[in-house]
């Protein structure tokens, strides 16, 4: 096994591109869009972003995609799918998974909220998402063809002793791509992380060790 520094891409929070929702009713900060033709383009295989929800609003429709959301900040919200189907995203880090083509309205509990948004096209990508505390150290193992995304929800994290990326602060992310050989990466620090593993096929297995 090896830690391949060439496979690491640091994504600082200050570099996320702020974009309008497709329906114009809100804003999102795009973390990464894999396979996209350009920032904000729709040609991606999978995408990570942070939705800024400042008022009750309908989400944009994304036929042919699946979505998973995790509450990052605020007093929470309820996803209203109509006909009495109400699904909460409540503090501290409520989460929901649903189809991108389904009409849904975000209804705030009180005040502004931010939501981590994972979107993917099932025919092209098979992601899995974990919320994990970081206390001391954690190992990530990436198989060839996998891509990992690490997002720091709270605290700080250091990747591979700081050789491959700067210190990760709250809101920062990093991508780990094991395109050629199995790789091992060490995360150290204190806080909370969101980990996204994206495999080329649907048979992805867990690769988190603590």
Describe this structure in words.
With 210 residues, this protein is mostly beta strands. The chain contains no helices and 16 strands. Strand 2 and strand 3 form a beta hairpin. The radius of gyration is 17 Å and the shape is globular.
C-alpha-based Rg, rounded: 17 Å
Structural class assignment: mainly beta
The whole-number mean of residue pLDDT values reads 89
**Tertiary shape:** globular
Multimeric status of the protein = single chain
How many β strands by DSSP? 16
Largest sheet data: 6 strands, antiparallel
Number of helices: 0
**Low-confidence regions:** 1-6, 201-206
**What's the order of the H and E elements?**
EEEEEEEEEEEEEEEE
Briefly say what this structure is:
With 210 residues, the protein is mainly beta. It has strands at 8-11, 17-20, 27-34, 46-53, 57-58, 66-73, 77-80, 86-89, 95-99, 105-108, 113-120, 126-142, 146-159, 173-178, 183-199, 208-209.
What are the main properties of this structure?
single chain, mainly beta, 6-stranded antiparallel sheet, 16 strands, 0% helix, 55% strand, disordered N terminus, HutD family protein
Secondary-structure blueprint of this entry?
Elements: E1 8-11, E2 17-20, E3 27-34, E4 46-53, E5 57-58, E6 66-73, E7 77-80, E8 86-89, E9 95-99, E10 105-108, E11 113-120, E12 126-142, E13 146-159, E14 173-178, E15 183-199, E16 208-209
Antiparallel strand pairs: 1-14, 2-3, 3-4, 4-11, 5-10, 6-9, 6-11, 7-8, 7-10, 12-15, 12-16, 13-14, 13-15
